[in-house]
Amino acid sequence: MARDSEEKDRFREADVLTWLQANPDFLRRHLKELSPLLPPGGKVLSLEVGQLERFRAENEELRNQLDGMLHRIRRNESIYQAFHLIQGSFLRAMDMESLLLTAFHNLERVFDICRVALTLSEHAVTSLGLFPENTPPPGLADRLFVLPDERLRAVMGTEGRSIIRVGREGAAERHLFFGEAGGLIRSEALIPLLEPLASSHETGNTTTVGRLLGSLNLGGATPSRFLPSDATDLVQNLADMLCLNLIHRVSPRP
Length: 254
Prior knowledge:
This protein is α+β, with helices and mostly antiparallel strands. It has helices spanning 2-22, 25-29, 31-34, 43-92, 96-110, 122-128, 149-156, 175-178, 197-202, 233-250; strands at residues 115-121, 144-147, 163-166, 187-194, 212-220.
């Protein structure tokens, strides 16, 4: 009989331990009621509660890390799909005007950008013959701007890097890149349009950065839309793609 009683006690202890492990909040919620049962010093139960709390915190941290990874995967997938959507729209455009307008509207819609515009150097307009009589079509008014090469280089530099400006920085010349919409812009990313190096080599240019043809201008309605810490690799790829499409459409056919 005594042995049976000991076995039952062991089973009960195992059941209680299993239940407590499955319900770690129980000890914390009822610590006051259980305190009279603690041995002197109360260290046993406190240690158990501390371990359970630590395990719970570790599990919560792991769950948050997994949630963050899933969010980044979904975000990258949506960006990848948007990238190919815009790429396809470039290929389907029938003329220069529709190509640019499609690029502007898709970038604004897909990436939630307040204003997208394009600035070209005088060299790009005249030497590439982008438009008949070097005059942009009326449909691109306040979307396409032409600057002297020196003025464009003064803003964009010569290293082929994106320029990100926030708040009042660059506000005095914002109209050069956004026209009348410049007053709505609170942050901007100016992405360089660079002549492909292969084309540059053909003209005797041996630099590691292609000639600056213009900039793809992205304007945000809030100061936090574009920040100096933002990565611009994806948008630079889109700008490179746009530049290739511009050059391809004016290249002489055999």
